[in-house]
Amino acid sequence: MSIKPITKDCLEQVMQQNSSIKEQIYGLVSDFNKRFNKSGLTAQEKQAFSVLKENNLIQIPIEDEHWGGAIIAKGGMKIPVINTAQPRVYQYFVAWHEIYHLLYDINLDEKTHNVAIDMDINERKADYFAAKMIFGDIYKYYYSLEDENVIDRIIKCMDAYKAPYKATLIELYEQAVEVYGDMDLKHTVLNHFDDKPKNLEGKFEGLELDPELVRSSFVISFGGLEQKVKKAINQNTGVSYHKDNYEFLIELKKEIKKEWEDLSK
Amino acid sequence: MSIELLFENRKTVGRKLWLVIKDNGYTKSSFSKLTGISRPTLNKLIDGDINNLATFENHLQKIFDKQIINADKLLKYSPKYQEKEETKLALSDNAPNEHSRNSRAQKMFDILEDIVHLCELYQT
């Protein structure tokens, strides 16, 4: 679904929503850590992609700044999709957002029909889950930085947690208000919330940080589909359409690459 | 089966055609290449949105020429498998209401639809 962008004017409302779902989401975070981090991965973004890849993640670059990804649920299967034309930092957040939908969103359960669900709160749950998987004690980290410039500090937080600009500020706001009662930081966040720096790559470079985080990755992956089609070819030598489908799949990959060659230069 | 009768029932014909395509292991794009019907036109045919008899006949004929199915069987076609559950989506999409996708993005969504269809065919 389309999610209403969060601005400083609705930040307080977001906090109230977070507060109402906090207990549930903390439970899910705990459940996730017990059940799904089998390999003991410590890099949060690797962990997210690892879970999605186990579920046949499709990675495809789509030239649309608003479309981050999806879970496509059809006939008993749920396929995660990530838009790799978006900067990595968004991909990581979207990955966790989609994990919520993949594992915990009952609206996508094939046996659940016509669920009276508030989609706005459902999306907030996915975002809140993503934030809780990504951030540690960002408040302390923010104050551990010596930079005087607020934007520089925020960018360093983005780099440390591999999180998007607004998600970083929302988490900082929540911790400042609810945990530490820091009204100065609350107002600082509000003052900068709608002023995302235009040239993030340049800002990262200026602060001697790796700008790859705010660049697109343009990864193309069909989630193991090629191997499955190849297997079907080997197991059903008399059936010709598997071979046609394999060739078709390779053509699709070429088409995507061609579309993105110029743009990724 | 007369072309007029098929045209009268073009919505049903479209639905049946989509079942034929899926049951034979094709995607919209691969079927489009096979028959020489452009992808947008195939979409219209499947949606039952071709409102000109001559155009409708012309495109259906391309399918019949490939001997995938004939006119008599198309309208009565029953799927080999039960039609699968309707697609459900959870999107990460922050687009404002007035936002429209550009043609390159739309092309990628069409490709994504093909990939998802293949995933359906090859899921284990």
From TrEMBL, chain A:
Gene3D superfamilies: 1.10.10.2910. It comes from the Bacteria. This is IrrE N-terminal-like domain-containing protein. It comes from Natranaerobius trueperi.
Automatic annotation (TrEMBL), chain B:
It comes from Natranaerobius trueperi. GO terms for molecular function: DNA binding. Residues 16-64 form the HTH cro/C1-type domain. This is HTH cro/C1-type domain-containing protein. It comes from the Bacteria. InterPro entries: Cro/C1-type_HTH, Lambda_DNA-bd_dom_sf.
